Amino acid sequence: MRPSDEPGTGRAATAAEAPPVFRLRDVTKRFGGVTAVEGVGFDLRPGEVHALVGENGAGKSTLMKMVHGLYAPDEGTLEVGGEATEFSSPRDAEAAGIAMIPQELDLFPELSVTENLFVGRHRPRTRWGTLDRAAMRGKARERLGSLGVDLDVTASVKGLSAANQQIVAIARALVGEARAVVMDEPTASLTEREVRQLFRIISDLTSGGVGVVYISHRLEEVFTISDRITVLRDGHHITTAPAADLDAEELVRLMVGRPLNELFTRSPHSPGEVALEVRGLGRAGEFEEVDLVVRRSEIVGLSGLVGAGRSEVAQAIFGIRSPESGEIRIDGEVVRIKSPQAAMEKGIFYVPEERRSQGLILPFSIKNNITLSILDRIARFGFVPRTERQTADRFAKGLSIRGGSVSDPVSRLSGGNQQKVVLAKSLAREPSILLLDEPTRGIDVGAKSEIYRLIDDLAKEGKAILLISSELEEVLSMSDRVVVMREGRITGEFGRNEADQERVMTAATGGRDRPAPAGRGEEAPEDE
Amino acid sequence: MSAATAALRRLKLSREVVLLGVLIVLMVVMSLLSPLFLTVGNLLNTSRFFVEVGLMALGMTLIIITGGIDLSVGSNVALVSVAVGFSYAAGLPLPLAILFGLVVGLAAGLFNGLFITLLDLHPLVVTLGTFALFQGLAYGLSKAEAVSDFPPWFAYFGQAYFLNVVPGQLFIFILAVVVVWLILSRTRFGRYVYAIGNNEEAAHFSGVPVRRVKLALYSGIGLLVGMAAVIYTSRVYTARGDSGLGLELDVISAVVLGGASIYGGSGTIGGTVLGVLIIATLRNGLVLAGVPSTWQVFVLGVLLLVAVFLNEFFRRREE
Questions:
Q1: Does A430 touch chain B (CB under 8 A)?
Q2: CA-CA-CA-CA torsion sign (A197, A199, A202, A208)
């Protein structure tokens, strides 16, 4: 898959003698009482691709933000070009040749490609003091040309494909003399062909002596592109090794701190009657022709890339978005669900992806969050009964929520415990069908493992579970069946024994030469 | 009970203690300005004025907790007043005219609520529109005339005394305070109100019937406005198109002064009652001290700004 013939290890070997572009020595960063990064060392050599891997919350982004001047380390030092340096802002870092391309691209969608490249940069002027737009456009073309792409520099950025937006972001980062580029999950929304283009650009950069830090969850890509790999776990440096000395299994073990089969819990359960059946469900611009079946005692994994329409389907089943076509059957009966209340009446509960904005009332106590969805059941003549507290206590204990009494606000809990409160809230409702949207995103390994055990228990009890997840290992390890979505359509369905990483990813990305997604074509009208 | 919640308790208490302190200081100042102020007769009489503002402030508290607002309450008073007076003048028996007035108040509130929930519009914009609309309707229907030939018993609502000293409407207010306090602090509905104010999206995802709650709140304040308008019309014994002009300022000031966050999510009935008392004392004291009504509005404006500042101060201290 590597576009250049040059093997990565050879390149790293020649670069090994050169002094590093930057080096972090024993850096520690704390936020309040939480230590995000502790005593971590990291260096980047000229011309190498250094992958930085670890689970969500392992400290990858925090570490790189210290290199980029967004945070200052509490302890330890940053050296650039062999000298101890302190950056007080990203501007300082960029002046020193360290550029960062964040996961959420910081582009201005309404502005043109040219304008985006020059925001916050030195802009050429005419002798009248006004912007020399012709010169700006010329430089923009030149810079994009050096990356081997030909874009209409007057087009507005919002009309570009995800890949081309990425390229604009890279071109913007490379203004000036970049010696190091940090890329945070650059391929999250790219197709395979676009990934290859990105890899070609990366290899052009490294052969010019630029060092690249590559943060990614996709282990295949990491092995394809990188020379060295550094693993972080819970804010600690676990290892740094040449990519050639590691394999995927070993890497996963280093990332999660234990073999995979200990992280996930799976006990045998045999799927029963069909609980939830969706036929031809569609909603313009979001999803179409979606067929889905979930049985009792069955965990169905719903996989796909971000933006494939998975959450939208679950929310349509839960009555938050009304589907425009198709039907939903619960226990064989056609139902029309117009609101979350109606969905709950039918025994459906949706645990949303956005925990803090959709799952919880943060200033509310643990108790008030847990009972929020059952008030209509437990209230007597509209009054909240005193037994509310016992009910909340029972579910808080059942999920071993730690970090306070049930009267404490959930805003003080850690991410993992907050997620347990959301789950407790859903279980209090005693649903027969659970739609879990990224239930373990951004929480620590310990809480993850507890949640997997819970999901497994729930399936054993007979609940029908739809597990939406972007983590392949999670879907593959937990599911009885894996359904894959791409661009709003179901593109694959695999039984437990046929599902593997490659099949699921192929279905999720559409294989090799897929046209750019509809509506994001490059024929955007000019903005001037 | 953990230390954190105990600290929060203390803080809540201290906000109300601060308000109580403000009220006492205000009363002392007023009694210095006018010897008439600190008499039982005057104090009880003051309640005649604050009951109308107070009734509306109860409903406004719940609305502000959800992050909404109702600017149309003053205009709605005029509308109800005109509805009662002119339907009576047109020949409707007075009890039915009063009932009609209450229905008009409720309908006006429902109208706000439907606009806000069904079209998903911001309450500020909707009620700014109905503020003008209700006012215009009241003027138009009354043709700028007044009705004041009510039968003597109509005065009962706004002018009666219990045991010769306690104004009758004070009982209505106390009853309303207890009912709304129970609703807000003890019922499922009250919990929903706070949930919506703190995070409307999460409330929706949790199965809270957000629209129905809002509809009930805007209709409910319409009914409270209807009651306030009947008492007002009875007190001044006249139905006119400019009844209740500018009352929304007093109502919103009282609620915000009472500690409800204008961003939604927090507020209590106890705080609002104190806010109402402070504003009533101020108004009454300024009248007795001979301050012209235009300057009273100025003072109220200052008070509103101080209240917003105080709230911000308390909020930041809590964080």
A1: no
A2: negative
Rounded Cα distance between B215 and B219, Å, is 6
Name the residue among B1, B187, B204 with its Cβ closest to that of A407.
Answer: B1
* pLDDT (tens digit per residue) in B15-24: 778 788 888 8
CB–CB of A247/A30 below 8 Å? no
Read off the pLDDT of each residue in A258-273 and give the average, rounded to a whole number. 79
Six-digit token string for A313: 């389907």
Contact: B2, A405; criterion CB under 8 Å: yes
User: How far is Cα B212 from Cα B218, in angstroms, rounded to an integer?
Assistant: 10
Task: Name the B residues in 187-226 with CB < 8 Å from any A CB.
Answer: 187-189, 191-192, 194-195, 198-199, 201-209
Count of CA atoms in the C-beta half-sphere (13 A) of B308? 9
| Average pLDDT value for chain A | 85
Query: Using one digit for the tens of pLDDT, what is the confidence trace for A456-504?
Result: 999 999 999 999 998 888 899 999 999 999 989 999 999 998 988 888 8
Q: Indicate the pLDDT class of residue A361, thresholds 50, 70 and 90.
A: very high
Strand partners of residue A43: A23
CA distances, A411 to each of A121, A407, A442, B4, B79 (Å) = 39, 12, 15, 12, 45
Structure tokens at A240: 């740094």
- CA dist., res. A526 & res. B246, Å (int): 52
Contact indicator for A182, A125 with CB cutoff of 8 Å:
no
For residue A116, what are the contacts with CB-CB under 8 A and spacing of at least 6? A107, A108, A157, A168, A172
The residue ranking higher by pLDDT, A259 or A37, is A37
Phi/psi of residue A229, nearest 5 degrees = -130, 135
Per-residue model confidence (pLDDT) at position B7: 55
Query: Which one is predicted more confidently, B33 or A328?
Result: A328
- Tokens standing for residue B245: 């002009």
Whether pLDDT at B104 is above 90: yes
Q: What is the pLDDT of residue A195?
A: 84
Residue A45 has what pLDDT? Answer: 94
Q: Which of B206, B213, B319 to mutate to test the interface with A (most CBs of A within 10 A)?
A: B206
At residue B131, the pLDDT reads 97
Contacts of B195 (CB under 8 A, 6+ apart): A361, A364, A368, A372, B202, B203, B206, B208
Residue among B191, B205, B208 whose CB faces A320 most closely: B205
Instruction: Give me A135's structure tokens.
Output: 């010169």
Q: Which of A178, A200, A5 shows the shortest CA–CA distance to A101?
A: A178
Task: Decide if B3 touches A, using CB distance below 8 A.
Answer: no
Give the per-residue pLDDT at A260. Answer: 60
Q: What are phi and psi of B183, to 5 degrees?
A: -60, -45
Are A66 and A240 within 8 A, CB to CB?
no
Looking at this protein, which amino acid is placed at residue B308? V
Q: What are the extents of the domains in chain A?
A: 8-97+177-257, 109-176, 272-347+431-439+459-510, 355-430
Handedness of CA B25, B27, B28, B29 (dihedral sign): positive
Q: What is d(CA B9, CA A300) in angstroms, rounded to the nearest whole number?
A: 46
pLDDT of residue A5: 42
* Between B246 and B187, the higher pLDDT residue: B187
Q: Quick one: pLDDT band at residue A518, thresholds 50, 70, 90?
A: very low
Q: Which of A6-15, A121-130, A392-401 has the lowest mean pLDDT?
A: A6-15
Domain A272-347+431-439+459-510, classified CATH 3.30.1850.10, yes or no: no
What is the C-alpha to C-alpha distance for residues B38 and B199, in angstroms, rounded to an integer? 45
A8-97+177-257 and A272-347+431-439+459-510 share one fold: yes
AA identity, residue B262: I
CATH number of the structural domain A8-97+177-257: 3.40.50.300
Examine the pLDDT at B308 and tell me if it is beyond 50.
yes
pLDDT over 90 at B12, yes or no: no
